[in-house]
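job 3f2a | input accepted
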Amino acid sequence: MHALVNLAQYLDVTGQKLLCDKLFLVDGSAEDAPLIPDGPSFGQAADGKFGFGSIWLAKRMDTKEDFVADSSTELIIELTGPYLLSVWSVFPAVNKVFTDSSSPRLLIMMAEDFLQEFMAHTRSGLLGQVDDKGNLVPDARSIMINIPATTLQRLLELLYVPRLTSDSLEYVDPTICIVTRVNTLRMLLGYDATVDTDVRDRALDVLVPLLELDSPHMAERLITVGKYKRIQNRLFDSLIPILTTQAGRTEAPNLALQLLKEISKVKMNRIVSIYLRERLTALGSKEPKIAHLALNFFAAPNDSVY
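job 3f2a | predicted structure (306 res):
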């Protein structure tokens, strides 16, 4: 998982970079030239044997883009098929890390870091609604907006996980740990003293840009659950304390504020505002930013300013 975190920004999920290399990269004999596995399969169109077809392909391909432009699916699968399968297999493995109840805390934190790093080049394009046409070769944005509901639900749960208690991600065995850090007095402390801030802040780093990728549809997926689209009260019970938290990273309250702003764009923000009205009003009387958020929730959907 640690290796995947460092490789996240280089994952070519569309095969665009490898396709360009297969067609135009020539295996040089210089000492500083990069090592190329299966060298003869690269540079297939670099010698000009395709005539003007090579020029046509070269002008329409850009390795900096996150999607394959002006290339047939058959060509992509033929030249990059095995590589794409190996890259795509990473995401079910990451989903397993989130959904497996036996995953240790450190592993879950690395999985959150992986999604955050992968999101960095996913957000290189325009934000807003994504037109997902169900292409055979999806781009990075399509992969993220189709994140499994199980992973999305787990990210929601990680917004409020107690630290070093019976409900925490770490179990302190009293028969092994001589100096017990868990005692009954810790359970009587406030939010900042009991929440696992490392896991919480990483979950915010993933959820905020994820909701911005496909606004407001991702927000609607996050706040509803089940066949009848029931509102997840647990999400808001976890977000409200973050608005005034003093523990963890200093930007955590601003991230929680951005998350609630994205949620306010959904059609059912009226229902959400009824549930949050009393708490947002109390917090808004002390903080101007929260007051602005409260007004956005209580306003009519067509009058939303965000």
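job 3f2a | Residues 125-129, 302-306 have pLDDT under 50 and may be disordered.
job 3f2a | closed
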